[in-house]
């Protein structure tokens, strides 16, 4: 693997990879900034004004519900719990019951509040309504100074909306990603735009994301922090990693070239998934040394299609969803990645793994520009053609297999914590932006 300065080394930079939460420690150190600076920023938010004047501690409630939100919020929760001046609370909707619990277990997080909303084959309306009602009930009892939501799921939008109804400030983590196509990804593009309309603080992974928000008229509260997923990778990926899940233990060490596959997006249900799965079958026939590992998302629409079309092929290993640390280390050992996931488009480039994106559009163009990610779409022939180039042409592979981190430097959580303290008047200085550009 080629390395660059900002490459994620296959080691953990200190700390326990599976940190264990304990009961809440509400003792925090003294505040850092003057009342004058605190009052000036708090005055933008009248309903919080009185409380902020007196505050020496900010109570911050992280709200999340799905696997990717949990993976990306886990290092932030850990950072905020260890930040003097912050009292961190964790509320989960459990939009993803099983996959969320896996992440909570991996990172040793015990939520303070669990809305337990998941239903089999849930609809977008069900998730939104149940999350909203659950949050409403919770926020009638708890009144944190700030609520943090992440990304673009239905939990994200409902969490932000509920906070707004209760006049609680909202920080949006992973803000400013856009395709400007209402239905791709669906419903995420609209979820993140509606969340941006509500949010007071916008924690953008990249300068491009911040630029998107500014063009939409957002003029305050924007911080370019890097993506917390890179912080998470630093907790999970290590050179001597031993897989925890039985199927991976049975498969490793992997002979031949290992291709990691994931596909779950709603807009790919039906024809999109059929195109993707036909391409996998064709690639398997074409290349005798290929082995595909596909941890199948538990959504019935995905599972039924995957097992029906791929269940009978020996070199395509359909397995249950993996714990995040297994997944990240498997990615690090793969030859390349085929995915429609958002998170994998950020993680694989950091690990020096080429990615073919099984979508027509992406809100993450930075790695495409860096040359490690290519858009393959969902048509069988296009996917086979691009994958064949990677498999046949060593130069193409080498160009794509360079490690780049356009999405972060592992310090996103520290920047977000600093921004929260700055905004609440407990710190005099804002964080310096990720990438060195204007924030
Ligand atoms: C959700 C998010 C999507 C995100 C994805 C990450 C929305 C609308 N979509 O989509 O943005 O990319 O999560 O994976 O918020 N299920 C289980 N166990 C689980 C999780 C899901 O059985 O742990 C099944 C349930 O039957 C559930 C179905 O999967 O009804 C779909 O879950 P849902 O959260 O509605 O949609 P995702 O496709 O997972
Ligand atoms: N992931 C995981 N186990 C799996 C598949 C994915 O831990 O079996 C991780 C993956 O590494 C990334 C996140 O889940 O951190 C991405 O989640 P997903 O693809 O479900 O959602 P998206 O990022 O597309 O919203």
What does this molecule look like?
It is built from 18 helices and 13 strands. The strands form 2 sheets. It has a 7-stranded parallel β-sheet, sandwiched between helices. Strands 10-9-8-11-12-13 form a 6-stranded parallel β-sheet, sandwiched between helices. It has 2 domains: about 35-225 and about 410-435, Rossmann fold (3-Layer(aba) Sandwich); about 245-400, Rossmann fold. It is globular and about 65 Å long. It is an alpha/beta fold. Helices cover about 45% and strands about 15% of the residues.
What does the secondary structure layout of this molecule look like, with pairings?
Elements: H1 35-42, H2 46-54, E1 58-64, H3 67-81, E2 86-92, H4 97-107, E3 113-114, H5 124-141, E4 146-150, H6 154-165, E5 169-173, H7 188-198, E6 201-204, H8 207-215, E7 222-224, H9 228-236, H10 246-251, E8 257-262, H11 271-286, E9 290-295, H12 300-310, E10 316-319, H13 324-333, E11 336-339, H14 342-350, E12 355-357, H15 366-370, E13 373-375, H16 380-392, H17 394-400, H18 412-423
Parallel strand pairs: 1-2, 1-4, 2-3, 4-5, 5-6, 6-7, 8-9, 8-11, 9-10, 11-12, 12-13
Helix pairs in contact: 1-2, 3-4, 3-9, 3-18, 5-6, 6-7, 11-12, 11-16
The structure holds uridine-diphosphate-N-acetylglucosamine and uridine-5'-diphosphate.
């Amino acid at each position: 693997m080629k390395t660059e300065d900002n490459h994620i080394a296959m080691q953990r930079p200190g700390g326990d990879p599976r940190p264990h939460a304990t009961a809440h420690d509400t003792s925090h150190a003294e505040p850092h900034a003057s009342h004058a600076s605190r009052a000036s920023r708090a005055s933008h938010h009248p309903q919080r004004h009185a409380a902020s004047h007196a505050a020496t501690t900010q109570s911050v409630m992280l709200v999340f519900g799905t696997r990717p939100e949990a993976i990306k919020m886990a290092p932030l929760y850990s950072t905020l719990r260890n930040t003097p001046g912050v009292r961190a609370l964790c509320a989960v909707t459990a939009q993803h019951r099983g996959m969320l619990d896996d992440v909570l277990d991996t990172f040793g997080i015990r939520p303070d509040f669990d809305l337990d909303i998941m239903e089999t084959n849930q609809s977008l309306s069900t998730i939104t309504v149940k999350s909203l009602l659950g949050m409403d009930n919770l926020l009638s009892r708890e009144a944190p100074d700030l609520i943090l939501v992440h990304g673009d799921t239905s939990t994200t939008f409902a969490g932000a909306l509920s906070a707004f109804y209760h006049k609680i400030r909202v920080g949006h983590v992973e803000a400013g990603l856009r395709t400007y196509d209402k239905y791709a990804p669906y419903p995420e593009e609209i979820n993140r735009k509606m969340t941006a309309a509500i949010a007071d603080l916008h924690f953008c992974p990249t300068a491009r994301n911040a630029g998107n928000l500014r063009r939409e008229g957002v003029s305050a509260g924007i911080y370019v922090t890097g993506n917390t997923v890179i912080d998470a990778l630093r907790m999970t990926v290590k050179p001597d990693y031993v897989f925890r899940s039985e199927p991976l233990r049975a498969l490793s060490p992997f002979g031949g070239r290992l291709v990691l596959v994931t596909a779950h997006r709603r807009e790919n249900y039906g024809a999109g998934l059929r195109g993707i799965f036909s391409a996998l079958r064709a690639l398997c026939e074409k290349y005798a040394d290929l082995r595909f590992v596909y941890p199948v998302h538990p959504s019935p629409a995905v599972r039924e299609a995957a097992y029906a079309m791929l269940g009978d092929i020996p070199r395509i290993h359909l397995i249950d969803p993996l714990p995040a640390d297994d997944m990240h280390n498997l990615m690090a050992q793969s030859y390349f990645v085929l995915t429609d996931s958002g998170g994998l488009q950020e993680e694989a480039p950091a690990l020096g793994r080429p990615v073919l994106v099984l979508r027509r559009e992406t809100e993450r163009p930075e790695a495409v520009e860096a040359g490690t990610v290519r858009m393959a779409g969902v048509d069988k022939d296009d996917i086979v053609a691009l994958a064949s180039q990677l498999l046949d042409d060593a130069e193409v592979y080498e160009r794509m297999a360079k490690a780049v981190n356009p999405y972060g430097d592992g310090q996103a959580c520290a920047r977000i914590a600093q921004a929260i303290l700055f905004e609440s008047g407990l710190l005099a200085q804002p964080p310096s932006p990720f990438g060195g550009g204007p924030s």
